[in-house]
């Protein structure tokens, strides 16, 4: 088992000193080793990211029409109530305490994490690893999601709870059945291992992918959202996923748009405006 002294003795190497992220990695290892080496750190990072990214949009939802961003709300006639917010947040807390936390404990006993490396990843390793994992996850979830909408039994038992709300709101991001959350959690853990990602890449990816998942559910089509900033409509974003909650036979991919385009399930802005007017 490593400790701070052993980590410190291996720092810095000539390779490490050339890396842009090395000072950050050294700081994490030398100042926060107990926290970042804990098997519960990824879980803490994931849940706190969900909470921190969701909270500002919950405040906007409570402000409703008084919010300066209300003009960007996609389904203006539907407002989440405090009860709906508490229910969805409660589902997320319950699932994490009852299913995810024991799974982390068991995994740590059966397959303990390897010691943290002394050398940071290069920026290229971090970006390419994160992008690779996102693309693999997007593919896995697209087909899983498609199958769960096509099969009525799977839909009812596993995915239907996520469609309790036609108009998504930030806390509803993790309003998932335990089976769906554990499936998503399994892929999120196994994909970076398959691509041999550095722990710093994994943690960055955790925060980034949860931000993108919350962004999918905020219910606001913000002009500076990634869906608008990334060219050629490569990302789906809030509008695409909001349409999925209104029209569940469309937009199955969580992040990117290529699988929905290939399978003819991509629905873009125009039909949504029509749906909104019809309602
Ligand atoms: Zn959703
Ligand atoms: Zn769905």
TrEMBL record:
Domain Fatty acid hydroxylase residue range list: 132-265
Signal peptide, first to last residue: none
Organism: Cirrhinus mrigala
InterPro entries in UniProt: Fatty_acid_hydroxylase (IPR006694), Sterol_Desaturase_Related (IPR050307)
Keywords for the protein's UniProt record, in alphabetical order: Membrane, Transmembrane, Transmembrane helix
Pfam family, one: FA_hydroxylase
Transmembrane portions of the chain: 40-63, 84-106, 126-147
GO CC terms, sorted: membrane
Compartment annotation: Membrane
Protein name as catalogued: Fatty acid hydroxylase domain-containing protein
